[in-house]
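Students often ask why we bother predicting the structure of a whole assembly rather than each chain alone. The short answer is interfaces. A chain on its own may look different once its partners are present, and contacts between molecules only exist in the joint model. In this exercise we take two input lines together and write out one structure for the complete complex. Read the inputs first and try to guess which parts will touch.
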Amino acid sequence: MSTNAKTRIVGAPVPRKEGVDKLLGRARYVDDIDREGMWPGATVRSTIPRGFIRSIGFGRRIDWSEFTIVTAADIPGKNHVQLIFADQPCLADGFVNHCDEAILLLAHPDKHKLREAVAAVHIEYEPLPPIFTIEESERQDVIVWGSDNVIKSFLLEKGDVDSAWPHAAHIVEGEYRTGAQEHLYIENNGVIAEWSEESGITVWGSLQCPYYVHRSLLAVFDLPEDKVRVIQTETGGAFGGKEDYPSTLAAHAALLALKSRHPIKMAYDRMEDLAATTKRHPSRIRHRTALDRDGKLLAMDIDIATDAGAYSTLSSTVLSRATLHSPGPYVCPNVRVRSRAWATNTVPYGAFRGFGAPQAIFAIERHMDEIASSIGINPVELRRRNFLHDGDTTATEQVMRDPVILDQLLDRALRESDYHAKRARFAVENETSAIKRGMGIAAFYHGSGFTGSGERYLNSLAGVDVTLDGKLRVLVANTEFGQGTNTILTQIAAESIGIGYDDVIMAPADTSVVPNSGPTVASRTSMVVGRLIERACLQLVSMLHEHAGLREHFTSEEFFAASERYRAAHDEVVSLVRYEAPPNVFWDDQKYRGEAYPAFAWSVQIAQVAVDTVTYSAEVEEFWAVQEVGRVLNPVLAGGQIEGGVAQGIGYALYEKVVWQNGHMANNQMTNYIMPTAEDVPPIHVFFEEIPFEYGAFGAKGIGELPHDGPAPAILNAIKDATGTSFRSIPLLPEDLFQQLAAREIVEEAAAI
Amino acid sequence: MSRSLRTLRFSVNGKDCAVQVPPMKRLLDVLREDLHLTGTKEGCGEGECGSCSVRMSGELVNSCLVPVLQAEGADIQTVEGLATNGILHPLQQAFLKCGGAQCGICTPGMLMAATQLLSINPHPSMCEIREGLAGNLCRCTGFIRIFDSVISAAAENRTTEQATHAR
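Now the answer. The structure tokens for the assembled complex follow.
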């Protein structure tokens, strides 16, 4: 309804809602908060990847009577972190499944003594053989999870893949790998927990999903809902890394608070955060593709394996999203995707921006370039011949009912980057230069919101109320962690009612104040939650029209005056609405068929890369990101999301490598886990094409995850364009470039002799 | 680490102060714990991320690497010292307008690095901006809008200078 309407505040570059507090340094992050009588808490962790705990010893130099000590035996309810499956203990009980698994908790008023005490706890183990790779897990010689190491598997089938091979003019195969990636939010995970008889547990923390933590604490402490309260504090970056982990950390702090009767702060330092918290799932994806003589796709057979780590966390849903994004934005009559998440003895992998899509899109978009060179078609043309259009169906038989403008996005990206002219120029220059330049493309979609029936199961509730001091207050459990929730939802509320941006405030993300409007994940906040706020506002206005004499056209003052008249008669002024699925949406969870996502955001990215054949370093010189994300609600914030996602994607491709040693992250410091700095990030050119989505707030679709999906394949495609060599694995560091490029040179030199 | 206390004097944001602390205590902890200036953040504790950047007698330092002993007699400026009488500093205004702050955790350190840069080079080139901010990590923005913010604040400088000359 409102998607094409003229707007004043939606679409405008209004300043970030909490921006001034952040700029003045007065925004309160969890480590900035002090509570009367608060003690720091610490964790004793496993030093082996797998085995029985035989004994726990306490060093004699420490006066342990000063400490609060918590083990699994102190857990009043269930010893598990409640997420999808209940397989992960809150504290290891007799057995460990990965290095850095939490075994015992300590608290003491003096943080220096606490550190000494952690080192003085001696744990004896009876080690068992661990497994660390997808291949070791697949072999099933050692079973570390369930009966077969498979945490989850999916089979998606469209048409009949096997019948296609005999008719194919070309069959191209490839295997692609991605490594673990750290979120590297600049604020580490941290919480404060307090216990009292009358209120139960209160937790403040750096987190994405207050109600996830709430639900998890109910199980660990066996408490009724009103005895657990979770409050998000200002959160210094998350990227999925504060989606599930805070449930574990909050339980730890609350266990110490319950036993010590002191407020407990557990704020990880960087080394502990990197060693113990979740990361992006490593993957191995195999493609076998049949094409006809014209380069049109006939069949795609895709095999996905992810390394899930020691416990299931969110691995099943990450695998689902990887499965649904693996065929790319292409039409193909016959598709089969077989996917499995394999358990290993590393720290559990979890949610990270993109949630399985970056892995899947790396594979398909690298594979498209392999197909192009294998059958002798230009990579641009190959994509164009196979793009999805309106009316086509995806691999799940979802009909593309909304406009799909991939051709337009591609044309724009080619034009803005001067792709063709540059490629031609580089081809000439590369002949005589030690610096080889190339251009690479990635085209992709990202499904907005929860997969399949997910949003219906969530059944989110959100709304607005009017405060006694005359502000409209947005009531959501969705959190701000830099991506712009506060600003966007404020814009939507102000616009929907017709009041000023400053007339609207955000309620604290506190489970005792706000309803459960679902988690802040899956690029759902603007589109799904924003829509709830839009509806709640319109409902409030009609309530005031009907019951408080509000006229059809009104000023802010008249709106708030009517609200007070309504309050006088009804005690409170509140409007809540529940999620309603767009019509004609059908999803079959068993067959993996139907409407996988209510909407898709689309993007074409182009990378210009220079490979130095003397130092073997690859540098992204310039980057173009063209996308269609529905209506852009705030151009400054939207641009910032794209640029930040691209930078993280560049890190994923070329810089960020988790080094494992016996299942422990060996480079768990910012000194040697390297992300792109201000000197590494290229100019990033961002362009939006806007097609309002009917069921998103003011036409919005998801945006947050999309930009991280494309840089890795675009960059490696550009490196192939520059050097003629295919790289199929990320991260791609100079030593990896050296290995393959130098090997090729040796072969070429030998051939020349 | 020695726990014996020592009285140290220095100025913070133009105000003289004295603290009784172990001399090897990190300047970062003294600012946050003893002076309750929590605007300065810890990101890594090893001088890599720059979130704890403050200015110390005209130098940009990582306060997590500075034993407070070294700060004796110094003039220290933190993010809390940028705004005057509730009016945002031009860099803060530019960050607000250009989208230079997202999650905000690197922002105090980034603002101090940018302040330092503009104090020694009021009109930096893009190359100089990148170099000047290279010790401060931001995971949200991809830095682009931070560069824009610094450029915008520098342009503001130029306007102010021209206005001053015109008088």
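Check your guess against this: The first helix of chain B runs from residue 27 to 34.
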